[in-house]
Amino acid sequence: MGISKSAVSKHVSSLEARLGARLLNRTTRRVSPTEIGLAYYDRALRVLNDAGEADALVSSMQSDPSGLLRISVATDFGVNHLSPILGKFLDEFPDITVNMVLNNRYVELISEGFDMAVRIGDLEDSTLRARKLSETTRRMIASPAYRPGTAARPGSTISTSTSSCIIPAEAGGSVWKLTAPSGEKRQVRTAGGLSVNDGQSLLNAAISGLGIAYLPSFLYARAVKEGLVEDVIPDLPVETQGIYAVYPPGRFTQPKVRAFIDFLVEVFADKGPIDW
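The structure corresponding to this sequence follows.
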């Protein structure tokens, strides 16, 4: 180890003092381990071997994507756009297993044990790192057969006396943030007979003629093409929202996380803005 005998002797004496046991028998002619010393040495060897294997495991995981990848995703986006492509990802990275948790709340990645999340819209201030994957748009849509009494405008109140809104059942769901034709950001208070915490159910309700829904294009685009719903106020500026992969901060991104984010960037780059 490149240290002197006196330095070794000092370290061993310090170790014996800490343990409260004699590890070596010393005479003027020789030094030999005690029974306790031999037992301690054998266990220490196993500890060092385990530490070496742990170092090797980290090196391996840093070079080859592997292990369990836990992802938090908004329910509608996960069902419509991540589930269909996970098979391709797992084929490319057979040493990774994916646990995708679908919910409509902002999870605390680190404290709740997630490796990353896919989020839509303005990102809350945080220390998380983010990489933009794509964009989507939001519009107010309804069935062509639905005829509210008065068209809703930003700054007015959409009420059941003029139009019925299908409202996301979540905090702040009764307030829609829109952009007026002038470009000014407005908040529209909404009211209606149905609130539900699932985007597909909101779309289905709009298709059935129950009222107006304010949804991202990745949910309603196909229904628009099929003539099932239409834009309620076509002259309103389009609300564009970013779609991001977010993950914990730090100098080193886990290979499994990096692999999945790179995969998503490639997939969504081929498709463009998500209105498909």
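The chain has a mean pLDDT of 82.
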